[in-house]
Design brief:
This protein is mainly alpha-helical. It folds into two domains: 69 residues, Arc Repressor Mutant, subunit A (Orthogonal Bundle); 67 residues. The protein is 51% helix and 11% strand. The structure holds zinc ion (2 copies).
């Protein structure tokens, strides 16, 4: 099919849809022997059918096309949940930072800490004799209580 023939076909399709708004995308695609997605695209472009909306996965605001996030949330860094090695609490951290830490040999065992206080506790306990067990015990008690 040359470009011109296609153009004529598409114009005829649009005119037909304008005159008969009840015609479906599927019907028009079969009639004009065009791919479904092409017909849908054409009709959307000429505002003969509405764009399909998806919703932002954070705030559920409508977004055009197949985007996953609204403008505001697209800019937000992706967060992942990690467990604080000091107190055992789950908290959120930037996914990019976690990835960086996994590659960095200075961070042993991918341990994460909420705060300096939790890090300090960890250092104190690990370096004090017999205290690692105390931390483990404390964490276990905490988990059992939840
Ligand atoms: Zn949003
Ligand atoms: Zn903590």
């Amino acid at each position: 099919m040359t470009r011109n023939v296609q153009k004529v076909l598409e114009e005829s399709l649009l005119a037909r849809k304008r005159e008969n708004p009840e015609l479906t995308v599927k019907f028009l695609a079969e009639w004009y022997d065009l791919p479904l997605h092409r017909v849908r695209y054409l009709l959307q472009k000429h505002e003969l059918i509405p764009y399909k909306h998806s919703r932002c996965s954070v705030c559920s605001v409508k977004v055009t096309g197949r985007r996953k996030y609204c403008d505001e949330h697209r800019r937000m860094p992706k967060m992942v949940e990690v467990i604080c090695a000091g107190c055992g609490e789950v908290f959120e951290r930037k996914a990019s930072l976690v990835k960086k830490m996994q590659k960095d040999p200075r961070y042993e065992d991918d341990k994460h800490y909420h705060s300096r206080a939790c890090f300090g506790t960890y250092i104190g306990i690990t370096f004090g004799f017999g205290q690692a067990r105390t931390l483990e015990k404390a964490l276990n008690t905490r988990r059992n209580n939840e």
